[in-house]
Design a protein that fits this description.
EC 3.1.-.-; single chain; alpha+beta; Herpes Virus-1; 5'-flap endonuclease activity; 7 helices; Znf_RING/FYVE/PHD; DNA recombination; five-stranded mixed β-sheet; crossover junction DNA endonuclease activity; two-stranded parallel sheet
């Protein structure tokens, strides 16, 4: 099975116990390194695993939700998924475990609700089934938002070092935002249309998108001010993260020329 490298990874995962004695038990956790984390769970609490999973393995990390913007966002999602009855966003939405429903199915149903409500329904999240045999389809009435892809395969986390402030300042000073027409002094968003030359501050493009949703803090979609293409905010953020790995090299080229 092929693996996907994810930069600056923040993910919330679901474990499934394969031990016949504890078969079917589940565990929800947060990690920045899924491959290291599953090893810790299977080695036990002395190796960094959780007390609840220690000496009960083998465990399989069957599903992970990734794409959170930072630790805090991921940890809040983890806590709500673990404690839906205590979460003010979920306690009125999620029913208790049904009579014919096992723990795994119940966790997936809770997840289905979470992905469809704020603030999580506006994040650039990916639903990743790490082990295909565990994959189940979401109920038709509880499908994730269209901008959240459902993928299969292992993931490898990779931490990307940020370019120096001096290099970022030098590169940004050569460009102007197409919306406010001021010099770029932060991360640059580009249109996903290959033929479009849009360059914009994140806040400028977000404000442009939010003109149709003035009461929102985070845009979901909008029209490109340059080429008029319909764009999903999540796709723009994914493109920014994907390009960030090569930013240091691009900055070096800018300095040399």
């Amino acid at each position: 099975m092929s693996s996907t490298v994810i930069e600056n990874f923040y993910g919330v995962y679901l474990l499934f116990c394969e031990n016949p004695k504890y078969f079917g038990r589940t565990y929800i956790g947060y990690t920045v390194n899924p491959n290291r984390r599953i090893q810790q769970h299977n080695k036990g609490v002395r190796s960094g695993g959780a007390y609840k999973t220690s000496n009960k393995g083998p465990w399989e990390m069957c599903l992970i939700i990734h794409g959170f913007p930072n630790d805090i966002s991921g940890l809040r999602f983890e806590w709500a998924w673990q404690h839906p009855e205590k979460s003010r966003r979920l306690r009125k939405l999620v029913e208790r475990k049904k009579a014919k429903e096992n723990g795994f199915q119940h966790k997936i149903r809770i997840l289905s609700h979470m992905l469809r409500i704020g603030p999580w329904n506006r994040l650039a999240l990916t639903i990743q089934w790490l082990v295909p045999k565990y994959r189940v389809e979401f109920e038709a009435s509880l499908l994730p938002p269209a901008h959240m892809p459902i993928e299969e395969g292992r993931v490898i986390s990779k931490k990307i070092a940020s370019p120096s402030k001096e290099k970022v300042a030098l590169s940004s000073s050569l460009l102007k935002c197409d919306i406010c027409h001021q010099m770029m002094d932060s991360d640059i968003l580009n249109c996903i249309n290959a033929n479009c030359t849009l360059k914009a501050h994140i806040l400028c493009l977000a404000s442009h998108f939010l003109k149709s949703e003035p009461n929102r803090m985070l845009p979901l979609e909008g029209s490109c001010p340059s080429c008029s293409s319909d764009l999903l905010w999540a796709d723009l953020i994914r493109k920014l993260k994907g390009c960030y790995q090569n930013q240091s090299l691009a900055l070096d080229d800018t300095i040399l020329t």
